[in-house]
């Protein structure tokens, strides 16, 4: 009897606790970090530092990498990816045809211990820039369409993805465009400077995410609507298995703040194109269970989302179609 009362009151406490966690996790408040005038398409959001953090840093359509300096200053120029870029020709441009000259970075990841910032540029490959920013150095080139990357903080390896061997970022908005299965998932070893192709034949790119313990990488295929788990260690090392088929197109995956969990930016109805795009954030675990879905449809109506980056309990949302980074909080 006593145990029964005890266990039911424990259950009550547990259920109450669960409710609080769920209610406090709905991300109902919204605010914006506005880009400088004319700037568009902040597709990434990365923070620098382990204890005191700076940022977010973001990549925009006109080729710049910007750093958020707080509400009084806003975003300021931090880095760029090609020596052919001039501020006069490129700043504020949204013309994809200028990408080869101005650069078009799409993804960022910090090596937190060194402060080096790794960059995936749609036209200019894999690059790195030091803590003071400026012109980034190309580490590997010759790619058609790099879209995502993540640094493995334990080994220093960079995992990155190439959307296609045949088309580039300009082609996807051209009439008659058809995606193909020539995407790849790759690794750059900063010590040997070697690039290895880990997976090929992928249908659409997206941003891979290394697990915190370094045992696997989650690899999205945007067009296929699929996330695979690529094992780095253990009996299945160097093999991939499908973890989750998503409703909609998964773009970047990022580690959530809770160990073993991830946030995925998903746009439903993007590819193949439908009359309405529904943008969402999915929180998943390493078994592929969807733990939470947050809708961004009110603030990102009919727009795709590229990234959901959790930081200090808030969600920073990146999109090709906005002039701000959205911040959802509780
Ligand atoms: C992609 O677009 C570029 C620039 O508009 C064009 O030169 C190229 O032929 C296109 N490639 C494909 C595969 O459509
Ligand atoms: C959503 O955007 C697409 C493409 O820009 C457009 O064709 C469509 O009409 C839009 N849908 C709504 C409901 O506004």
Supply the key terms.
vacuole; Neuraminidase; 3 helices; 330 residues; disordered N terminus; Strictosidine synthase conserved region domain-containing protein; single chain; mainly beta; 5-stranded mixed sheet; 9% helix; globular; binds 2-acetamido-2-deoxy-beta-D-glucopyranose; signal
Structure description:
There is one protein chain. With 330 residues, the chain is mainly β. The protein has a domain at 39-247: Neuraminidase (6 Propeller), CATH 2.120.10. 9% of the residues lie in helices and 43% in strands. It has helices at residues 2-23, 87-90, 99-102; strands at residues 29-34, 46-48, 54-59, 64-68, 75-80, 105-111, 116-121, 125-129, 134-135, 137-140, 146-151, 158-162, 183-189, 194-202, 209-210, 216-221, 226-231, 240-245, 249-255, 261-268, 278-285, 290-295, 307-311, 314-318, 324-329. A 5-stranded mixed β-sheet has the order 2-3-4-5-9, with no helix packed on it. Mean pLDDT is 93; it is low at 1-6 and 8-24. One 2-acetamido-2-deoxy-beta-D-glucopyranose (NAG) is lined by residues 275-276, 302.
The CATH architecture of the domain at 39-247 can be named as 6 Propeller
What are the low-pLDDT stretches, counting only 5+ consecutive residues below 50? 1-6, 8-24
Q: CATH homologous superfamily name of the domain at 39-247?
A: TolB, C-terminal domain
Tell me the radius of gyration. Answer: 20 Å
Keywords: Glycoprotein, Signal, Vacuole
Pfam families: Str_synth
Signal peptide: 1-25
GO molecular function: hydrolase activity
